Amino acid sequence: MRKYVGLVLCVILVVAFLGVALALEEELYPGEKELLEKARAEGGIVVSYDTGPTWANWAGVFKKFTQRYDIEIVYNDLGSGATVVRLEKEKNRPNADTAYYFMPFGASAKEKGLTEGFIPVNFEKIPELLRDTEGHWFSIHKGTVVFVVNTRLVRKIPEGWKDLLDPAFRKSVVYLDPRTTGIGFAIVLATAHALGGSVDDLMPGISYLAELQKENIRLIEKTTEYDKFVKGEIPVWITYDFNGYRAKYIGGLGDDVAIVIPKEGTITAPYAISLVKGGPHPNAGKLWLNFIMSREGQLTFAEGFVRPILDDVELPPEVQSKFLPAEEYAKAIDIDWVKAQKVQPEAAKLWGSKVLGEE
Asked: Is residue 82 a contact partner of residue 108, using CB atoms and an 8 Å limit?
């Protein structure tokens, strides 16, 4: 019997191998097979920091990557700022192969000597302002800061930032900590721009968030709150639009979710990724980054309501039809991301002192 069990296992392994081989009969880009062989020689594993599967359809990207290459992905969910801090602590003995963050944190990681230059496929199609010229970081997708509202838990739907100050939203609003997460920092930037400030003048946003903190904040979270929102624990969630569409159309909440682009305005934020300097599996890291930037990888983001960074990868019609109208998205602006990177430490300090009252 043991002999037959062994034979079955061999057959399964052969079929699995052939499946991978067949999948690569057509390369996504020249040199893909050679890079895969090198990645397998490193142990068949890639360590991808801050790509939590409940965020930005990373679960879908993981699934397609592992199906194609049979390479294991190890991930964590730290937040953009915390990811850079972790990379710094591990600088002399890196554990990560790649790191993902809100775009300004990519430039910060490069300045600290934590990244390696790598030019992935389709690099030249990324807008120049959204990539480092040497490939130390490059943007891979975008999201717009919005309100995601559980209509079962609130009596009226807020239309703008100032509406959230209404006592009707007492202890109702949740967002992530701007000191450690990209979305938190993006919310500081969005409120500053929407309420009369700019990257050079963050105080309108900081003052607004301090006012909101007095009565209407339910919780400042450290990591993604998607599961809590789907469970009905969050009335109003300030986050990216793709999280709202996911909760509404994939998470099963349907008409219980309203997605609102604030009437005073907001921002659209790019997210970036890097190859970590001295990572333990450099070729697996390059294989992972190339897949993310391939048409297959970019389309997988789109299938999860995450807008790809490549303009020639369109949202599938069944996804596009579920998005808010284009005139709503006209309220969202792009900002100067080079300046944004430079003011991140100031934003973190101001938020801690003015909003939380920390010394």
From this structure: no
246-254 long-range CB contacts below 8 Å, 24 or more apart? 246/57, 246/304, 246/305, 247/148, 248/322, 249/305, 249/322, 250/304, 251/226, 253/150
Would you state the structure tokens that stand for residue 85, as one six-digit string? Answer: 């801090």
Model-level pTM greater than 0.90? Answer: no
Residue 220 DSSP label = E
Query: Could you tell me the two tokens for 157?
Result: 């739907």
Extended strands (E) in 186-265: 217-221, 236-240, 257-260
pLDDT in tens, 323-359: 999 999 999 998 988 889 889 999 999 999 999 998 7
Q: Are 147 and 237 in contact (CB under 8 A)?
A: yes
> What pairing do the DSSP bridges indicate for beta strands 173-176 and 236-240?
parallel
- Pairing of β 257-260 and β 173-176: unpaired
